């Protein structure tokens, strides 16, 4: 168990992100800004190629493109009138072609301790912060709780959209609230955890289509991290890795470094092999269908859910359908992990859609199960 008080003297006023986040000395760190600004144009531009900004490296131009580094920029009346797409790290995105609208690339920086009470610390981050760097920063500050989500690509602002999850933790479990800009009402508004309807890779933001037409932009997120920490190492792959490292009583850093090592072994680095991580959701079926499948396929992995349904492993279904390491042109399912769709080079959105449809059809034919893609299509 671990409990650590936050450092003294860093309690800025609670601002719910209505103003750009600032550090205790009132300034964003230069290193932070440099990192976020790297490779991003500073001013609104037309016909911007988005292939460097999506981890599948798919081509597609935005008719207009603007980097957002402060929440106030969103209030410019011009933005509300346009067809919009809100872009984070592009790690859950399939570009299907050019986008005839305005892409707002979220790069709002800043992270800080907002407040603490007897049980927890509350940490706020700008939407444009890199998720993995933010998690490592919380650990360095002595605020554990997010370590199981280490090395997930993307930005902090996108994390609540699909309730990112890995190794026995979903971000919704540590989420406190967020601030978003409503383009229609021209106002910032707070969203609490109880409003978010977090579920497996799902939330109100997806359910109500925030992500489809850029209706709202998340500008900052606050996490609640309990001061009493217990390791979340129930996930078999994680506990095996810790055992292999001879670690019986892991620290938060031990868990983060074990997860980073597992992920680096298992998942292709998008900078080398373009991908979006798991391409399909693990499907949920009813008990009767799970029983029928089990009778036919005794090795079927299955995970009973509290609501009575059964979760199946999409990667196993894809592998059994013959798609592990199989390609249609430049796009196929990764040879080391059948759930990951990869671009071997030069693929377009149409190539991705062709392979996706072929995988879905083969899994449906063999198991009568529908696979739903995880990424957003633009
Ligand atoms: C190698 C790899 C591994 C991955 N592993 C995991 C994993 O273990 N678990 C997991 O859950 N996911 C995983 N993912 C998927 C991805 O990392 C997450 O979904 C991540 O949260 C996407 O963040 P992003 O900033 O890249 O979002 P983007 O891809 O840019 O956008 C995703 C959606 O969120 C919307 N959005 C983004 N930012 C904002 C904002 N500020 N306000 C409003 N809407 C916004 C976009 O409009 C879009 O609809 C993985 C991806 C890769 C490439």
Strand and helix map with partners:
Elements: H1 30-37, E1 45-49, E2 61-68, H2 77-80, E3 84-87, E4 93-94, E5 99-106, E6 111-116, E7 120-126, H3 131-141, E8 165-166, E9 169-170, E10 175-182, E11 187-192, H4 204-207, H5 210-213, E12 216-226, H6 236-244, H7 252-266, E13 275-278, E14 284-285, H8 287-296, E15 302-304, E16 310-312, H9 314-320, E17 327-328, E18 331-333, E19 340-343, H10 349-367, E20 376-377
Parallel strand pairs: 2-5, 3-5, 4-20
Antiparallel strand pairs: 1-2, 6-7, 7-12, 8-9, 10-11, 10-12, 13-19, 14-16, 15-16, 17-18, 18-19
Helix pairs in contact: 6-7
The structure holds flavin-adenine dinucleotide.
Written overview of the protein:
- This protein is an alpha+beta fold and 378 residues long.
- Helices cover 24% and strands 24% of the residues.
- The protein has ten helices and 20 strands.
- A five-stranded antiparallel β-sheet has the order 6-7-12-10-11.
- Strand 17 and strand 18 (331-333) form a beta hairpin.
- Helix 6 crosses helix 7.
- The protein starts with 29 loop residues before the first helix and ends with a strand.
- The structure holds flavin-adenine dinucleotide.
- Residues 55, 85-93, 106, 127, 152-155, 157-159, 161-162, 164-166, 211, 217-218, 267, 270, 275-277, 376 line the site of flavin-adenine dinucleotide.
Quick synopsis:
This protein has 378 residues and is α+β, with helices and mostly antiparallel strands. The chain is built from ten helices and 20 strands.
